[in-house]
Amino acid sequence: MRPCMCNLLSFLLLLVTFLSAFVHCEDPYRFLTWKVTYGDIYPLGVKQQGILINGQFPGPQIDAVTNDNLIINVYNYLREPFLISWNGLQHRRNSWQDGVEGTNCPILPGRNLTYAIQVKDQIGSYFYFPSLGMHKAAGAFGGIRIWSRPLIPVPFPPPAGDFTILAGDWFKLDHRRLRRVLENGHNLPFPDGLLINGRGWNGNTFTVDQGKTYRFRISNVGLTTSINFRIQGHSLKLVEVEGSHTLQNSYSSLDIHLGQSYSVLVTADQPVKDYYIVVSTRFTRRILTTTSILHYSYSRIGVSGPVPAGPTLDITSSVYQARTIRWNLTASGPRPNPQGSYHYGLIQPSRTIMLANSAPYINGKQRYAVNGVSYVAPDTPLKLADYFNIQGVFYVGSIPTSPNGGNNAYLQTSVMGANFHEFVEIVFQNWEDSVQSWHIDGYSFFVVGFGSGQWTQDSRVHYNLRDTVARCTVQVYPRSWTAIYMALDNVGMWNIRSENWARQYLGQQFYLRVYTPSKSWRDEYPVPKNALLCGRASGRRTRPF
């Protein structure tokens, strides 16, 4: 063989080896081990039994880059079953990792479960929380930051620092007593206070340098109330909402409803001193307030003057603000192409689903319902029953796709059916006098419209079909409606729920079964080999690899 031919063959072999390695390379893995324990906490100055992760309250922050694989081994050292869920993570093709009662068996005391989560095609600010019972009232929640990949442009310069704020209402009653209140047929009492990162009044300090800009990621991790966030003397430039880069409007304060997450840029452009960071309740007649400190480096002047007041009962200003939150059409999301290259407004929905919340009494006890159906959990997770074809656990269509128009609410394990690749319009109709907050697991959706009164087909005239924001949690104002568009591109069993934890616990939730007859892993992963089995799935076999 001639030398030139040998060189050519060597080059081709090297090229094939390189391309093979490139094709089979995996996204990075991050390994975490969490130990869930009880521990004494004093969030409102009163000793309480909290739920800690690795001894921390709130729990450890999760940092990841788009497409990273998170391997999180959770050990349950409590005396009760436990699960973690991931607010806003989409678990593409993999609702097995969602960590809610309808998809996963609980981690029993003394046992562990390893979650395998890929943050596929996601960026932004989210949080995790304990999903069983009223554990959320005891802690075990924490922040999630998903950073853009290095070569993907971000529509603002790198900030000098990045802070997470987990804010929300808090009760002095422990989670077991709160659960008993609900199970006895009553709503929760008014909360005792507000927390920022697990602490009360002036319990946290965030240090900044004059002239520099910082990113604050704020999530409402509370149980029952919307909040308003503001920083004394400083503007909040909104840049991201639950994975969507937004038009960079500036606000003096932001309403953040239950379960929602926002990112703002704050420039330290004021004289060197300390300033209040303020969180207060929204739409409550009794206003709860708490503060942290924005501390300028080298400041020797503490906070002073009255705590800046925020909006209270006014609905109109909140609706106006919500309508100004728009998609940044030219900014990249998790991929290099502009967000606006997805023209959601040009897609005709295949059908309309209307979801109406209500607060019925059933068997003499307070319950909450969707379309007249109050959810009750079965003895076997829905996802396992579906996979193993276990009869009698649930049936698809056990909740109607529109309100029944009557007052006869009933208890049911409610599952709504939908087909893979449908594009649907969902209208949340709220005839009650309180703000509702709705979350959909596994998805991001487009909030195309808000309106007062009864939604009708004529309401579509006022939809924003160009640049509304895509997010995973949306508010519905009193005696009003909110409409969303959603592409059902993620097969699985997905929880749709109220983010008011009392309402969720007492039935204002259901599951959407997004189905395909295909058995291809391209559409959905099979049951994990380490899946916990319980109820009527006990003794079954998971896959061998």
From TrEMBL:
Presence of keyword Oxidoreductase: no
Keywords annotated in UniProt: Glycoprotein, Signal
Record-annotated Plastocyanin-like domain positions: 36-149, 162-297, 379-518
SUPFAM superfamilies for this protein: Cupredoxins
Gene Ontology MF term list: copper ion binding; oxidoreductase activity
Top-rank taxon: Eukaryota
One Pfam family of this chain: Cu-oxidase
InterPro entries, per database record: Cu-oxidase-like_N, Cu-oxidase_2nd, Cu-oxidase_C, Cu-oxidase_fam, Cupredoxin, CuRO_1_AAO-like
Signal peptide: 1-25
Record has Signal as a keyword: yes
Family in the record: Belongs to the multicopper oxidase family.
UniProt cross-references to PANTHER family, sorted A to Z: L-ASCORBATE OXIDASE HOMOLOG ISOFORM X1, MULTI-COPPER OXIDASE
Protein name as catalogued: L-ascorbate oxidase homolog
Naturally occurring in which organism (per UniProt): Vigna radiata var. radiata (Mung bean)
Gene name of the record: LOC106769393
